[in-house]
Design brief:
23% helix, 5-stranded mixed beta sheet, single chain, alpha+beta
Length: 101
């Protein structure tokens, strides 16, 4: 039996995936998992916080997500991003949305 070889094809994409921010980091997926587990095991106020930095002058937008239990961040290692100045823009059942200044 012979195998047919194909010439190497160069991959070309018409849309590039944005680099950095919530797209490449696992912080949002990790936060959703932590929220699900902590919500099952406790009766406290568990929220997923999502903070974004959006600027018109640059394409370098980025963000971070973390979980708070009764207002205190849990299982979070990037305290520097949590402590950055930010403004609360919305809150829903399990999410709090922030905008970095």
């Amino acid at each position: 039996m012979t195998t047919q070889s194909y010439p190497e094809r160069e991959k070309t994409y018409s849309l590039q995936r944005p680099r950095g921010g919530i797209v490449d980091n696992w912080c949002l997926k990790r936060s959703r998992l932590i929220h699900k587990l902590v919500s099952k095991w406790t009766r406290g106020d568990v929220k997923i916080n999502i903070a974004m930095r959006c600027r018109e002058d640059t394409w370098a937008d980025w963000g971070h997500a973390w979980v708070t239990y009764n207002g205190i961040p849990i299982m979070e290692f990037k305290r520097r991003l949590i402590n950055k100045p930010k403004e609360k823009i919305a809150e829903s059942g399990k999410y709090i949305y922030w905008l970095y200044k």
